[in-house]
Amino acid sequence: MTPMIHVEHLAKSFTLHNQGGAVIPVIEGAGFSVRAGECVALTGTSGAGKSTVMRILYGNYLAQGGSVRIGGLDITKAEPREILALRRETLGYVSQFLRVVPRVPTLEVVAEPLLALGRPEAEALARARDLLTRLRIPDTLWGLSPTTFSGGEQQRVNIARGFAHAYPALLLDEPTASLDATNRETVLTLIEEAKAGGAAIVGIFHDLEARARVADREIDVSAFAPGRAA
Amino acid sequence: MMPLLDVRSLTKTYGGRIGCADVSFRLYPGEVLGIVGESGSGKSTLLNCLAGHLLPDAGRVIFDTRAEGPRDVLEMSEPERRMLGRTDWAFVHQNPRDGLRMRISAGGNVGERLMAVGARHYGEIRAQATDWLGRVEIGETRIDDRPSAFSGGMQQRLQIARNLVTGPRLVFMDEPTGGLDVSVQARLLDLIRGLVRRMGLSAIVVTHDLAVVRLLADRLMVMKDGQVIETGLTDQVLDDPQAPYTQLLVSSVLQV
Questions:
Q1: Do B218 and A116 touch (CB under 8 A)?
Q2: For A169-193, how does the pLDDT look when each residue is reduced to its tens digit (9 = 90+)?
Q3: H or E stretch including A5?
Q4: Is the ipTM of this complex over 0.85?
Q5: What residue segments make up the domains of chain A, in order of their start?
């Protein structure tokens, strides 16, 4: 079976044109793959490039070399509209920060990925209600914009949104950070359910217990530092 | 999939000065393209050339028409182009006064565009106008008021209703949230996003506001001195800009 996520010879550097044209190589020769139903944790010290790898997988950062195949599409060479379709149907991303149009009610923010897929409104809203309930966002807040919520509440709204559609590939950037024990447990259960549903997951977990529980393998991105690669 | 709009090597000069030079891109159905750059970068010139308000010196603007498939808009007759402007295309001006008739009622402003495409039944026109005013959150009680009695944000929403009532497939927007205060901007962005999704619209939005394009546009085109400097997915261009100018533009934004 071909892996859901397949990375080969990936290279990334940043060129800072307005700071003397400094070139900062970050990743060289990275390669790994993730199968359906598998969760892989990216590890390495702060600054090793974990987030950079995640952002390249999402098409948010451009790669300078190599390939990243997700569901058969090489996103390093794909057209923007192909990546947009991939993000809509196949590839989900739970970032650490919630970015939404102000004034849109929480319930709609969470239902949006399903509405964008053309699912019936009733079904999308029912799924959103279910997730918000599970993540203990009180229903008195559902009609309000999450922009005014506390950090932990915003993160849970972000997670609800990320899990609304059953993406075959899912990227998680510290999904349990700043959550209390009960909500952390809910998020870990959601991750386990997604795995059981066949999702290929790549995550960054600073929470070591959480990592040990959901991750099948670890990939140390320090190995991809320039000069280290074979 | 066939692009809705296929722009090839579009060039416009003002005497010896470059307005926009050799611009090419494709816009697909349902996509929102943002065009950013500082004033004088050629983004408004480009938008006006695309929308048929300015005649470019060279290039092609091929639109996938409903009846006849892809046609070069620049080779259409004036009446044909005007018809397109009233039906499949819409243009939202920065200043609502440029897109509204200030001396007729809000309902009349919406109804007029319907009549331009052949609607004649008064009751139906009024019902549709009321429906559209509702969608842009203008109360039914205001239908007979003139736009001059509206606030800036309401005028802009009225302009959007007037433009979208005929169910266009492509909307051009020139700084649609410019000049509005921040809370009104957010409301308008929410409205535009909802309409784009529900109606399956494609849009080209010109703005200098990077926060607006981040929330509104799928793809981004960065312009400077009439040239396209960089293109890509909106979040990719903003988070990992490649060109020196784009890096400067992104790093110059004040963080709130």
A1: no
A2: 999 999 998 899 999 999 999 999 9
A3: strand A5-16
A4: yes
A5: 34-62+79-224
Which residues in chain B have their CB less than 8 angstroms from residue A14's CB? 240
The reported pTM is 0.92
Phi/psi for B90 (5° steps) reads -140, 150
- Per-residue pLDDT of B76-102, as tens digits, reads 999 999 999 989 999 999 999 999 999
Fold (CATH) for A34-62+79-224:
Rossmann fold (3.40.50)
Give contacts of A116 with chain B, Cβ < 8 Å. 197
pLDDT at B255: 63
Please state, in angstroms and rounded to a whole number, the distance separating the CA atoms of residues B136 and A140. Answer: 26
A9 Rama class: left (phi>0) / alpha (psi -120 to 50) / beta: left
DSSP B97: H
Q: How many angstroms separate the CA of residue B79 from the nearest CA in chain A? A: 33
The pairing of beta strand B32-36 with beta strand B219-224: parallel
Write the residue in B187, B214, B244 that is nearest to A17 by C-beta: B244
Cβ proximity of B151 and B67 under 8 Å: no
* d(CA B187, nearest CA chain A) in Å: 7
Q: Residues of chain B whose C-beta is under 8 A from some C-beta in A?
A: 28, 31, 186-187, 189-190, 193, 197, 214-215, 218-219, 232-233, 235-236, 239-240, 242-244, 247-248, 251
Q: Which residues of B touch A109 (CB under 8 A)?
A: none
Residue B211 confidence (pLDDT): 87
Q: How many Cα atoms occupy the beta-carbon half-sphere of A225 within 13 Å?
A: 10
Write the pLDDT tens digit of every residue in A60-116: 999 999 999 999 999 999 999 999 999 999 999 999 888 888 888 999 999 999 999
pLDDT band at residue B123 using 50, 70 and 90 as cut-offs: very high
**Across the interface, do B233 and A80 touch by the CB < 8 Å criterion?**
yes
The band of B196, judged by pLDDT with boundaries at 50, 70 and 90, is confident
Please indicate whether, in this complex, the C-beta atoms of A102 and B243 are within 8 angstroms of each other.
no
Beta-carbon contacts below 8 Å between A and B: 56
A51 secondary structure, DSSP code: H
Extract the tokens encoding A60. 């948010």
Dump the DSSP string for B147-196: GGGS-HHHHHHHHHHHHHTT--SEEEEESTTTTS-HHHHHHHHHHHHHHH
